[in-house]
């Protein structure tokens, strides 16, 4: 049988630079090929080329064959007839790919209507069927909504409906779950997989996430800088990769656990007690307490909106707490930045997620690092210069980078400078907010190593905020799980590994895809048993909890249950939880 | 000088034309009076509204004065008053904008509300009211035109500054304990320079048009001084004869403002093509 | 969220529109305070000025009392404001007529000029702006860019004088002075307005076209446009059904801002053509320092401006489902 999709010697050039160079592959009918690579690998560019589309006026050469059709030779009218009918596209961010001014239904049915494949009434019936198949809530009425009224996970599924409604022969999915929380991702992946299979389409799945790809792909093609590194059956690439680059990717994707958690003696350096905080009238943090010793690491886990970044802002004083206390070495820190002394500022340093915006683009690396040196330590001239060089050496960057403008650095270099600026203050506490999530896996892993090493060496207490539970488990001595602004679980690393967990933590842990085929099929969908509104004093997780108890969870606040090295907020007895989450 | 040339070469054709025109008028304003063939107020032609001749390259005006000489003097008022007022407007507008953006809260609220009020008075109307109230000496004209365009600059600069302030590096500076002045001048302002320069150019164009308009109405630069707008006004009676004395100064203003506008437009970052 | 049926959404938008209306009113109130402060309080003593340097202090004091200048500033402001609100802004000092009558004679002419200009310029400007945006970076776009860029920076009196030179002096097609009277036929009125409308339109069209282009081009860069193209939607349909609904708000805003520019532009054009409108009346008021007339004219212009912006705001709210649903 000849291949359904066949690409030969694909080359895509923008300006004088080849973004994609000499890529070839074939996909059999009904199979899924994954394009894997880091940013700049050309994976999205290749996917778009299959629809005859290129961004920024890049030119496509080579052979792109879909069935009998040479896509690369189609004119504008031919492409228009192909797109949305034979080949459909699911974009990374559904929130921006949907037109904000039109209803969902008018957009989902549009491919059928512009290709004259169905009447408006028939198209709407087909759309509702698809909504149902994709497990969307209120399938009959959801089409009347506007994009801003729906959640990210819902929009992503609606975009799949828009793509599949014409029963295309090829579907291109471009990082379709990257913008979603991990607990939402499972549901969306399941819906996608079932829907694509029911249409019988061939698919191309673009992703940077090997574990996700393991669930979706029959074949994998590994890309780096526009060139093919390795391609083959999914099993072979995942379990017996032959290329060095593929192995690096695999290694970075599964962080190795630290040998032993740093044993730290002494009193708590940072002590947060009963902290509440709100943006205006909107409460974001509810009764948070934590303790951190010199040189120790606390991992804060939560999904978007859980309040994890707010916690860092409250400790730094950027958002004044409305109640509770933050103590540093026994001394109470003023609520906001107004009352704090320069010494107090120095001792607590923040490192932000996105180094592109965290570094002032008009300054050089040297200026960026010299400012805290002058500000906190009064270092000037040659002294400052020497210290900048020492800092650059510490973060493993060449000293001549000091004269370079920060805009000229790569993403990983920027994040190192970002880190070095905080270290220049010689802080006692380092607040790291998602410092690796904007980076490629390999680069991010190196940054993690560096932070881990430096905080041991310098004895800095680190608060490590992340949405990625496996990273936190590998790097932290203590774990704090936030849900809806409440600490639902707190444990030291050993107790966390032993495993009695809050139902939310449990859901989170079971939502992280594993790097083996078949995981998705085994992953149990946990449906909320008591869907309800969030009550003031009730458990925040109640509306999504798969094991909520009627009459208890929706009636009174959850009690604190403590064990050896851990504590959690739940109505279930620890023993029951152990059984439920085993 | 090399900078100017390499800069000019980086511009598209329209930008080079604009740069040429702006530099030309700057040169005229600086040295024009030294090169003028006749004194500015001298009656040198027997005739009035003469056409272009060898002795009067741009004809003569309604009193028989040399138009070229009067133009060279008049350009000085137009260019320098315009540039001075534009600088003043941007200085005040941007300082207030930085204060509003960095302080935030009620300071921002009050300043923004005040500027919103002022911007609701169409600029020419605002200028007319002020001229009626205070008169139109050169110093007053400079102040009035500057004040008229402060709210416009404030609006642009505040929008830019608020964008920059929302970026993480400003938050980092705040968390480092930096004071407002350092944040405004070192962290925020350098990131607004390019759009602010463009806005300065735009204010300059607006102010030149406003000043010329006022002078044209007889409410701007008063005799014995005369800017380019005054020259148009003086010679209105020559309109039916099609005298160069009325058309030339009007075209002179247009070349200055159009030139500045073309230059600003070509400085904008290149738009990505769709 | 589930209750957002179309009719309830329409009702939901009323408080938002009410809020904008109230905000415009407050702005107008603040504007009146600014206008009165500048024109009524800050400039020296009107009584002294009227009587000249030779007047005795007793004479000045008497006149001051007569003019009400000896009352506190706030009292004077509210008296003035009350007059304006009741449609009686006082007596024109120069014409020696009630300001209301002077304005009533001029305002319709100005509105007619503005209406003609809007009728000519809005369709043309939208066509130019949309055409430029669609052919972004192409030759048409670059040509139109330079043309509009030039037109926005040209002083009105150059366009007007060139217009007179060409159409009145050389070709003898049109009158160089706008004679508007009630007995003139419609054709005569149109002919005599042709040059003023032309002079005003050039700048207004250019401004409006540039803002329209920016609004449409901004939308064309959005990811949803690429998505629509990838669904196989023809480009014309993308522009009409995807881009335009999102660009309506910004475009209406551009139209409002440009039309408000008519107010200022009219000052020069009305003077050149001796057009008996409100703007030339205001210039006369400045020349003769007729403050009551000046203040009334200024307030009318500001009110028109705020009304235009308010209308644009309301249209933008109605066009945006996100604002509609709030």
Automatic annotation (TrEMBL), chain A:
Keyword Hydrolase: no
PROSITE patterns recorded: ABC_TRANSPORTER_1, ABC_TRANSPORTER_2
Cited CDD domains: ABC_NikE_OppD_transporters
Protein localization: Cell inner membrane
Keyword Transport applies: yes
GO molecular function, one term: ATP binding
GO cellular component annotations of the record: plasma membrane
Membrane topology recorded in Swiss-Prot or TrEMBL: Peripheral membrane protein
Keywords recorded for this protein, A-Z: ATP-binding, Nucleotide-binding, Transport
Biological processes annotated in GO: peptide transport; transmembrane transport
InterPro entries, per database record: AAA+_ATPase, ABC_transp_ATP-bind, ABC_transporter-like_ATP-bd, ABC_transporter-like_CS, Oligopep_ABC_C, P-loop_NTPase
The ABC transporter domain, residue ranges: 5-250, 270-509
Family: Belongs to the ABC transporter superfamily.
Protein name (Swiss-Prot/TrEMBL): Peptide/nickel transport system ATP-binding protein
Source lineage: Bacteria, Pseudomonadati, Pseudomonadota, Alphaproteobacteria, Sphingomonadales
From TrEMBL, chain B:
InterPro entries the record matches: BP-dependent_transpt_permease, MetI-like, MetI-like_sf
Intracellular or extracellular location(s): Cell membrane
Family membership noted in the UniProt record: Belongs to the binding-protein-dependent transport system permease family.
One GO-annotated biological process of the protein: transmembrane transport
Domain ABC transmembrane type-1: 75-264
Taxonomy, superkingdom: Bacteria
CDD domains: TM_PBP2 (cd06261)
Pfam families named in the record: BPD_transp_1 (PF00528)
UniProt keyword terms in alphabetical order: Cell membrane, Membrane, Transmembrane, Transmembrane helix, Transport
Topology in the lipid bilayer: Multi-pass membrane protein
Record-level GO cellular component terms: plasma membrane
Transmembrane segments: 77-104, 125-150, 196-222, 242-264
SUPFAM superfamilies: MetI-like
Protein name from the UniProt record: Peptide/nickel transport system permease protein
From TrEMBL, chain C:
Superkingdom in the source lineage: Bacteria
Biological process annotations from GO: transmembrane transport
Cellular component GO terms held in the UniProt record: plasma membrane
Organism whose genome encodes this protein: Novosphingobium taihuense
Annotated keywords: Cell membrane, Membrane, Transmembrane, Transmembrane helix, Transport
Localization terms from the record: Cell membrane
Key word 4Fe-4S present: no
PROSITE patterns, sorted: ABC_TM1 (PS50928)
PANTHER family listed in its UniProt record: DIPEPTIDE TRANSPORT SYSTEM PERMEASE PROTEIN DPPB-RELATED, PEPTIDE ABC TRANSPORTER PERMEASE PROTEIN
The protein's name in its UniProt record: Peptide/nickel transport system permease protein
The keyword Cell membrane belongs to this UniProt entry's keyword annotation: yes
Membrane disposition: Multi-pass membrane protein
Family indicated by similarity: Belongs to the binding-protein-dependent transport system permease family.
Residue stretches making up the ABC transmembrane type-1 domain: 107-312
Transmembrane segments: 21-42, 111-134, 146-169, 189-209, 251-273, 293-319
